[in-house]
């Protein structure tokens, strides 16, 4: 119970970070926080029902998060090269 | 109050405080360091929940690899701080209200789905760590073999993609 409530709180903080920050890197970190909150809920339920599946899903989520961070940070570096800024307000045009 | 519950409450306080610190600090480096604290406390939660392998993976992959990558990019770009710009006046209160609504909804839905009324604390008895790890490994390499192999391709694609995205074209002035 407590873990699920904590997971919901952490997820909400992550969502709040995506909504109010303008720094692309901090928005990205907030997304990581949300992934982490979901993982915590998975492990809590895996423990409640004494099932291995939850832990295995978390393992895959961690692997996907690692891949996502690599590509996402490469994108941020590429955007910084053209815009000289990582403020998400400046990323308003489709054409570089 | 059991020891586990006290430990949980203290760690939960640290986790939420670190998450809020990540949110409000103006310097991106501080944000990254707060997030490392948060990931470390979540790793301790995994240990409390009887998932030692996930806890170690969390420390090495999240707190280790991913956050080092973040810090590396922050310092490479020199983008610790943003110049203050115009912000919509109603954005912040609206966002906080929406986040509170989201937290309430999520907590209600998840709590109403949990059938047992017992608290999710302290797995029954001392779990045999080696036995748990063996079960995890067996499941990973039998039932979940295909997703496991697909993950390796995914990581390869991510690696190639990151290189292609940051590579400078021939003759281009960077």
Describe this structure in words.
- The complex is a heterodimer of chains A (96) and B (174).
- Chain A contains three helices and no strands.
- With 96 residues, chain A is an all-alpha fold.
- In chain A, helix 2 runs antiparallel to helix 3.
- The mean pLDDT of chain A is 86.
- With 174 residues, chain B is mostly helical.
- Chain B folds into two domains: 81 residues, NADH-ubiquinone/plastoquinone oxidoreductase chain 6, subunit NuoJ (Four Helix Bundle (Hemerythrin (Met), subunit A)), CATH 1.20.120.1200; 47 residues, no CATH class.
- In chain B, helix 1 packs antiparallel against helix 2 and helix 2 packs antiparallel against helix 3.
- Chain B is extended, with a radius of gyration of 21 Å.
- The interface between A and B is large, with 68 and 77 residues.
Overall, the morphology of chain B is extended
| Record field, number of beta strands of chain A | 0
Return the CATH class of chain A. Answer: Mainly Alpha
Averaged pLDDT of chain A, please? Answer: 86
Count, helices of chain B: 6
Relative helix content of chain B: over 70%
Low-confidence stretches of chain B: none
Examine the coordinates and then state which fold CATH places here, giving the name of the CATH topology of the largest domain in chain B: Four Helix Bundle (Hemerythrin (Met), subunit A)
Largest interface, with Cβ-Cβ < 8 Å?
Answer: A-B, 68 and 77 residues
Count of strand segments of chain B: 0
Structural class of chain A: mainly alpha
Mean pLDDT of chain B: 82
| H/E element sequence of chain A | HHH
Quaternary state, please? heterodimer
Helix percentage range of chain A: over 70%
Beginning-to-end CA distance, first to last residue of chain B? 61 Å
Going by CATH, the architecture of chain A would be Orthogonal Bundle
Query: Can you summarize the main beta sheet of chain A?
Result: none
Please state roughly what percent of the residues of chain A sit in beta strands, choosing from under 5%, 5-15%, 15-25%, 25-35%, 35-45% or over 45%: under 5%
């Amino acid at each position: 119970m407590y873990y699920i409530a904590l997971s919901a709180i952490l997820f909400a903080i992550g969502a709040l970070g995506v909504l109010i920050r303008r720094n692309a890197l901090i928005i990205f970190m907030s997304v990581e926080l949300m992934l982490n909150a979901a993982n915590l809920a998975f492990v809590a339920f895996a423990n409640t029902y004494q099932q291995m599946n939850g832990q295995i899903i978390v393992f895959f989520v961690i692997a996907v998060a690692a891949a996502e961070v690599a590509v996402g940070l490469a994108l941020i570096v590429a955007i910084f090269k053209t815009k000289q800024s990582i403020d998400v307000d400046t990323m308003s045009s489709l054409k570089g | 109050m059991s020891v586990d519950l006290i430990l949980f409450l203290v760690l939960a306080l640290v986790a939420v405080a670190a998450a809020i610190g990540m949110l409000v600090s103006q310097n991106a480096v501080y944000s990254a360091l707060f997030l490392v604290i948060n990931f470390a406390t979540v790793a301790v939660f995994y240990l409390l929940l009887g998932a030692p392998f996930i806890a170690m993976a969390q420390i090495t992959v999240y707190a280790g690899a991913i956050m080092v990558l973040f810090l590396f990019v922050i310092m490479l770009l020199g983008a610790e701080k943003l110049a203050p710009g115009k912000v919509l006046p109603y954005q912040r209160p609206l966002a906080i209200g929406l986040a509170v609504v989201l937290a309430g909804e999520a907590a209600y839905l998840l709590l109403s789905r949990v059938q047992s009324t017992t608290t999710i604390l302290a797995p029954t008895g001392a779990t045999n760590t080696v036995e748990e790890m063996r079960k995890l490994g067996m499941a990973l390499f039998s039932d979940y073999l295909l997703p496991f192999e697909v993950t390796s391709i995914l990581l390869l694609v991510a690696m190639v993609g990151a290189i292609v995205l940051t590579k400078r074209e021939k003759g281009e002035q960077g």
